[in-house]
Queue: 2 jobs
Job 1
Amino acid sequence: MLYAEFVDIYEALSKTSKRLEKEKILANFLRKLKDKDDPQWIYLLQGRVVPEYDSREFGISRQLAMKAIHAGLGVSESEIHKQFNKIGDIGEIAEMFVSKKKQSSLFSSKLQVSKVFDNLSKLMTIEGKGTVERKLAYVSELLGQASGLEAKYIVRTLLSDLRVGVAEGILRDSLAEAFFPQEKKEMADIIEAVYDLVNDLAILFEAASKGKKALEKVEIVPGRPVKVMLPVKVNAIGEAFEICGKPAALEHKYDGFRMMINKNGKEISLFTRKLENVTKQFPDAVKAVQSHVKGESFILDCEAVGYDAVTKKYKPFEAISQRIKRKYDIDALIKKLPVELNIFDVLYYNGKSLIDMHFIERRKLLEKIISHEKLVIRPSFQIITDSEAKAKEFYEHALEIGEEGIMVKKLDAPYRQGRRVGYIVKLKPLVADLDLVIVGAEYGSGKRGGWLTSYIVACRKNGEFVEVGKVSSGLKEKEEEGTSYDAMTKLLKPLITETKGNYVKVSPKIVVSVTYQNIQRSPSYSSGYAMRFPRISHYRPDRKPHDIATIHDIEKESRSGRL
Ligand code: ATP
């Protein structure tokens, strides 16, 4: 197949922003693509050569792309820079130079999709000495054979900036349109469910093109991430039982992060809820799984919770999020912030998918295969009850020991990947909202370097302001009036009265509404109280500092049962 056929589709897609039109264009193309060599070519429609969960990159920067244009087309680097300053899109620059060069010679491109796919794939695997030169050679080779338009899309693909607007949802619906035009709606749902199971467009495409039976046969495989099942939210125990039936299983809602543990023979891989592969960041979790879980192959669903290595106290999610991001010095961080794995589901075991098995049976298996060790790995703490009084007691105890709330689970439910279907419900305290004034702030780091990104907020006490916490979430990076770090920084800078390193004091003028989960006594702030999980919900230019919450409101809130 000629790459030109892909380019025609990119062009057609970029000319419309209407979803239905895009779907039609794609559906026609997918029917054609079906008979070609390789289902993986479908990734190219999104500017990729691997499934979305595979985080490997081409590793081509804008500079390198310019070098490749220089090497592949013999244009001087200064000319490329000059054009870049004028046009700003390297794809278009590549198109322009290629067209100029090949115009006169009646050039007609014979560039094959397989060639483009292969060269792009190789870029992801090159490592070590001479990497840059080898990458340049693969890209220049493609540009040397491409037409102007082809060059544009090759370069845009390399820079992960295809600009044709094909999101995963459109592609899924286009598959339904292409292969099941008579029952499009029903099949779109099935296609979505299969996608959530495999998260791989090529597998989905191949099955869909063969028909409904083939789609139904698609199975989970350890090592390939599955989208997790999600809870719906309820506000009362009674409501939880209404949805899940009686009796139901009750578990603590741990404040860590969701981890899918995959084992296939010797190979163990760990994925987050967003399908990010975090195996390298958590060698301690890999070890715990190797030594504490029986079985040749499995997929386990769990919450990894961080704790302080010295005090053995659990830490909130914010702390453990450093471990997800950390790519170096991992051993030192493990020593400081180990994790405990609270396993709450099993989706696959020794060669068999269990997603259609009832939860209670899956749970029984789970308990058999895990050898429990405190602070390392354990089945999630669970009770099964039909008593609302017992459930309430369980909930209150969970909050007392600092958990976020509880999860209630339906015993005879299957596992439904990627959905909030009501087989699990979560119950947490209501989020409340207080108006507070900003009295101090801290500069962010890295990308947020120039901005004040965390804010010390205070309430009123006898005509003064006393601090009740530090809030750093809720704002966007850039936006209007006070709802972004950028805008908030502009509001606060003129109010600075004192600077100490990263920290500034500001005169109390800016009022914000802050939501939080609960308020606890705390020696860290001058009010003697601190908010848990605070988040700015609104900037309140309409409020004055004398309108804000008082220490009495805070005391009342801390006793209000929002434990
Ligand atoms: P929010 O903070 O708004 O409640 P969340 O990040 O907790 O959102 P939700 O989808 O509302 O996300 O809650 C589900 C999450 O709760 C799961 O993804 C999982 O990470 C976590 N969780 C903690 N304990 C359990 C448990 N015992 N069973 C299932 N999920 C649990």
Job 2
Amino acid sequence: METRLRIAVQSKGRLYDETMELLGEAGIKLTAVKRTLLVPSRNFPVELLFLRDDDIPDSVASGIADIGIVGLNEVLEKDKNVEILKELGFSRCHLSLAIPKRIDYTGLEWFNNRKIATSYPVILSKFLKEKGINADIHVITGSVEIAPGIGLADAIFDIVSSGSTLVSNNLTEVENVLDSQAVLISSGKKKLIEEKQAILDELLFRFDAVKAADGKKYILMNVPREKLDNVLSVLPGIKSPTILPLANNDWCSIHTVIEEKRFWEIIGRLRAEGAEGILALDIEKMIL
Ligand code: ATP
Ligand code: MG
């Protein structure tokens, strides 16, 4: 039987879409349209094990899956023997302490002898211990943010992304304890067999190529030769842009890659320096 690297992924929820998108961009196509628990790829030696995100760290630590894609918050909370191989840059959120808006927050000592509701008791107790705060941790699994409003707790420790849930519950974030994102994990103790390690290496290589292209644009433009030096001085930090001749000898074409976040600034300066016919294209992969 062919060796397959088994990847534990979330079956549905906030990690699912971007996990599938990353795998898709890495060229991995799945067999079954209908989602079953274990789905092999039809063009790459991996199979996906669909689980609740809570179960992913343990499935990897115990060797049921070879690697997994899960939020760092879940990895730290479950505290299993896993190794973080790569930060994947999506599903970003943070774990924060929040208190009712009306309270005048004086600093961490405020939490002494308070009751904090959370679904993340492991991360919270570690944090409080480090800071020398003695609080009462009250574990609830869902709707943590309503706890202060109904008198169940003085404060909460929960996931925050936009903060709108906090606002609608009259809470305000006072301490950001952990910045989280999706991470790729492997077992902390078991080494992969050689064939599986080779599959993992290829996968990591592809993920890097997808990530490198993220937020970048390929641009090409026509420039009068006499203005070439001025235009090149605008293009930031690129080793050596491609310069091609055009049928009209007084003009040439420049091709290069720029950061999307500086796109409009750079385009404006290029135009001011005499660049014309500027085209911008999405980059799918970038092998550095
Ligand atoms: P499951 O059914 O798999 O247990 P879940 O309800 O525990 O799912 P989701 O709400 O799907 O979990 O969130 C999965 C992960 O997505 C979180 O653990 C966190 O890492 C990340 N995440 C990113 N943004 C948010 C957000 N705004 N709210 C909650 N989680 C977020
Ligand atoms: Mg969960």
